[in-house]
Amino acid sequence: MRKPFVAGNWKMNTDSYTSVNLAKDLASGTLEVASESITLAVCPPFVYLQAVAKALSASNIAVGAQDMYFEPKGAFTGEISTSMLKDVGCAYALCGHSERRHVIGETDELINKKVAAAIAGGILPILCVGELLAEREDSQTEDVVTRHVKCGLAELNAEKVSAVTIAYEPVWAIGTGLTATPQQAQEVHDFIRKLLAEMYDGQLAGEIRILYGGSVKPGNTAELMAQQDIDGLLVGGASLKADDFLAIIQAAAQKT
Ligand code: PGA
Predict the structure, then answer these.
(1) For ligand 1, what atom is nearest to the CA of residue 99?
(2) Looking at residues 9-28, what average pLDDT do you find?
(3) What pLDDT does residue 18 have?
(4) How far is CA 50 from CA 71, 115, 174, 222, 228, in A?
(5) Which of 225, 241, 234, 228 has the alpha carbon at shortest distance from 37?
(6) pTM for the full model?
(7) Which stretches of 108-165 are DSSP H helices?
(8) What's the CA gap between 53 and 90, in Å, rounded?
(9) How far apart are CA 213 and CA 174, in angstroms?
(10) What is the spatial distance between Cα 173 and Cα 206, in angstroms, rounded to a whole number?
(11) How far is CA 40 from the centre of its chain?
(12) CA separation, residue 105 to residues 98, 100, 110, 223 (Å)
């Protein structure tokens, strides 16, 4: 039984005031949501992590980073290590979000190093995978997702991989208002789970949570979560509005 998991990705949004306010609204809005029914996290910009973690300290909502670097310390100007993340109360880190792959230019190899470093450093990685529109139109979705999953998890044994959450985010659905249909998403989630079973074993594949991301809104949460292999949601735009994100959380927590 995979517990639903909803994570908010605030991207390069909010400021010192609005980040803490949003966190406080989420903390009070989730008082009745039992931690046994759902795992919750938000990923604010690095500079607000500590303040947001403090605002959420009495809640069931964990804090995640949107990225991290694989080296433990040293001359890596601008980068942030796992120990720094842990130091400010972070439990998760997104690795390989499509904006990092396609805007910043991260490679599968770099993303693999980040996933491995996160696990080694006690941070739970959320490995993001997903195809571009042109790749879907060219029937390459399965090839792209296979590459992202296999390269992202390269050289990680089953024990390490059990710490990983996968987020399937078709790039054409991110921030566009175009959501994959629940069936389209389910097909890819099922494909990823079978791939994990081939790479590791069926039991581990059955335990790993696979989130869907891309224009998730309160109105499409229930039908996405109704799909057998959709275990949760990675939410961008709608996670910046407390009411919307709380409605998504309430709907996702209904999955049994
Ligand atoms: P979106 O972003 O919900 O705004 O489409 C999702 C994401 O990039 O994680």
Answers:
(1) 8
(2) 98
(3) 98
(4) 21, 22, 27, 32, 36
(5) 225
(6) 0.97
(7) 108-120, 133-137, 141-152, 158-161
(8) 7
(9) 7
(10) 26
(11) 10
(12) 9, 6, 10, 33
Instruction: Tokens for 254, please give them.
Output: 């209904």
* Antiparallel, parallel or unpaired: β 39-43 and 124-129: unpaired
Q: Strand pairing of 232-235 and 5-9?
A: parallel
Whether residue 136 is predicted with pLDDT greater than 90 in this model: the reply is: yes
| % of the chain at pLDDT higher than 70 | 100
Please give the tally of structural domains in the chain: 1
Mean pLDDT of 75-98: 98
User: What are 176's two structure tokens?
Assistant: 């566009």
What band does 250 get if pLDDT is binned at 50, 70 and 90? very high
CATH code: domain of residue 198:
3.20.20.70
141 Cα to the center of ligand 1, angstroms: 18
What separation in Å is there between the alpha carbon of 171 and the centre of ligand 1? 9
Q: Residue holding tokens 């450093």?
A: 121
Whether the predicted pLDDT of 150 surpasses 90: yes
Given the DSSP bridges, would you call strands 92-95 and 124-129 parallel, antiparallel or unpaired?
A: parallel
Residue 235: domain span: 5-252
Residue closest via CA to ligand 1's atom 1 equals 236
- 97 is a catalytic site residue: yes
